[in-house]
Amino acid sequence: MQKVLITGAASGLGRALALRFAKTGADICIADLNTDESEKTLELVKQAGGQGWCYELNVSQSAQWQQLLSEVEQRWGSIDVVINNAGVATGDRLDHGTWDDWQWVLDINLNGVILGCRTFTPMMKQQGHGYFINTASLAGLMKAPSMSSYNVSKAAVVALSETMYYELQPYGINTTALCPGFFKTNLDKSLRTSDPKMHKFVDKVFASSELDADDVAEAAYQAMQKKKKICNPHKVGRRGYFIKRYMPWLFDKMMFQMAYQTKKYDPQLENNS
Fold it and tell me: Which residues make beta-bridge pairs with 261?
């Protein structure tokens, strides 16, 4: 029976990941700040064939990770999979929004992943095996304009995951960076932006997504079976990343077109006109 820890598992992709692992009979730690929704995930996990327990966790707090480590040691004694999935969204130009928003998104999206990896790497090294899945984003690979803080947080998760992929394999530990594009989830509910048009844009791309949370969770699970360094589950995402790598002139053209288009809606320029 696999022992799997998932952050942000109370809803959205985290819940879908929990249910995917539950199908294999896994024992799952549902780690999230939302305790009520965590309990709902736990009931769904049991219905799907797994078992588990809930833990209230703020992923940005080092002391809480150490307390969770102690709980895992007491309950399980070892761990097989850690999925650093908890995340939030921001959508602003570089000079817009607040510095607090930058700190908020980096604390959760980046520092929360770093802390999860640092906390459980020693245990995995001692036991000689383990797996990390770190939820990044297509934004970490593509870096579209008007999403600077979010892009930075997710690109850093990709960099961390790729480093771990090489550094930890000699210890029997593998890592996958999960890089989905937009899909229907509850991430938009946490979105912080100074631009009211951003909410409309996010809702539009969510509605048009080819995949849902269950599809992304299945892609992540299959990537783990194959020990893939990067999981880019969306066809449009794979096509875009191919263009960036092998047709950079076309990628630059696409990004500049997007940047000039969004410039029209810069409220700072509107106010100065």
Answer: none
Per DSSP, the three-state class of 104 is helix
- Are the beta carbons of 221 and 233 closer than 8 angstroms? no
- Model pLDDT for residues 62-112, shown as the tens digit of each residue: 999 999 999 999 999 999 999 999 999 988 888 888 999 999 999 999 999
Beta bridge partners of 176: 133
* CATH classification number, 3-272, choose in 2.40.10.270, 3.40.930.10, 3.30.365.10, 3.40.50.720: 3.40.50.720
Question: What are the domain boundaries of the chain?
Answer: 3-272
Q: Please report, as a single letter, which amino acid is at residue 120.
A: F
Measured in whole angstroms, the distance separating CA 166 from the mean position of its chain's CA atoms is 20
C-alpha distances (whole Å) from 28 to each of 17, 24, 55, 163 are 10, 11, 10, 26
63 contacts: CB under 8 Å, gap ≥ 6: none
Q: Is 171 a catalytic residue?
A: no
pLDDT digits (tens, 9 = 90+) for 22-64: 999 999 999 999 999 999 999 999 999 999 999 999 999 999 9
Say what the pTM is.
0.90
Residues 131, 150, 165, 241: which is the catalytic one?
150
